[in-house]
Input
Amino acid sequence: MKIVASLLDLRAARLSLDGTTGFVPTMGYLHDGHLSLVARAKAENQHVVVSIFVNPTQFGANEDLSKYPRDLERDLDLLRPLGVDVVWTPTAEMMYPSGYQTWVEVEALSQPLEGAMRPAHFRGVATVVAKLFNAVQPTKAYFGQKDAQQAAVIRRMVADLNFPLEVVVCPIARAAGGLALSSRNKYLDESQRKGATVLFRSLSAARDLYESGERNAETLRLKMKEVLAGEALAQTQYVSCADYDSLQELDFVQGKALLSMAVYFGNTRLIDNAILGG
Ligand code: AMP
Output
């Protein structure tokens, strides 16, 4: 497993990989969710490249960039047994040198949901992923359904900018009890961690309603809110029942829909989602 930091070293390492190359972009502090993406990339390609980069431009001024968890040695130990060819760990100075001024904006898809709560977040995501794609030139790139809107934004960007690669979206890896794995779960104390299973429970309750025939989106949103309200430690920021493709809020569910939510436990903001009709 080659570990490279500079763009020149990444390019040299990439040129030495002959054949299909799967790419998994991450911000590090890896967990089984990330590793499931790496395993899928390994299964579907001759080579695998993983990037570890906490991208400053996707964090808002009031967000947790400086205290985002980092542990490179631990991440490398987790990746070594998985047969990863190259790990790229660029620095912020390499990605955004002085004078940097070029941005990728996926307009409408970046506006609702997470974008409404985190202005400029998806501009930062789309820009860094475009830069990572240009450098790594993967055959396929792997993202998690955990960040559903991110996956939608990246898919759109790849189509709009003609990136010659396939985007693969992988299922959400969950802990026992249903809590979606996230690097931010480390901030939860024991009672918050228990309480945080409420996200999955509320998504499951809405899905049950849907499966019993309910198609009124507001009824599904109210069900999610009701279950979330039953957990004293949870502070709901938003719940949504949106069209899967446009991410616009629905009145009635027809075709594929996305249930999603953001919920605070103390200062820790958790997101989760489920697909209906897919
Ligand atoms: P991050 O390091 O948080 O930027 O995540 C890197 C990639 O891993 C993104 O494509 C995420 O959607 C994906 N990911 C994060 N958590 C999970 C999870 N619990 N299950 C599946 N994929 C995940």
Q: What stands out?
A: Residues 26-27, 33-34, 36-37, 143-144, 146-147, 170, 172-173, 180-183 surround adenosine monophosphate (CB under 6 Å).
